[in-house]
Specification:
The chain is mainly α and 106 residues long. The protein is built from 4 helices and 2 strands, in the order αααββα.
């Protein structure tokens, strides 16, 4: 089972403590995160709402496996967005809905 590279976490925390500073967002990298060519893995502090991992974890396209069991896993997966171009620039419709004089929409 994955330990989230506990040895890397302990080392980074010890380094930060020796330097009398807090850990920075993204300072700890797991081995799988470091070796992932697509940067698909994000690791960090979920308790910091400004961290990259918290933002991605709470994004609309992120989901946990077996959510219906209410186990609250620490891993979330991202949905592959296949229509990204359309989301950035939605197509214009030829027939726009217009309000009539009585307020009804056509």
């Amino acid at each position: 089972k994955c330990t989230f590279c506990n040895h890397r976490i302990k080392f980074s925390k010890a380094q930060a403590k020796l330097q009398d500073r807090a850990l920075k967002d993204g300072e700890i990298q797991t081995a799988c995160q470091q070796s992932c060519p697509t940067n698909a893995i994000i690791f960090g502090n979920l308790n910091d709402p400004d961290s990259a991992v918290a933002k991605e974890f709470n994004a609309l396209h992120a989901y946990p496996l077996l959510e219906e069991l209410n186990t609250r896993p620490a891993l979330h997966y991202q949905v592959k967005v296949r229509n990204a171009a359309q989301l950035k620039d939605p197509p214009k419709h030829h027939h726009e809905s217009h309000a009539s004089e009585d307020g009804a929409h056509s």
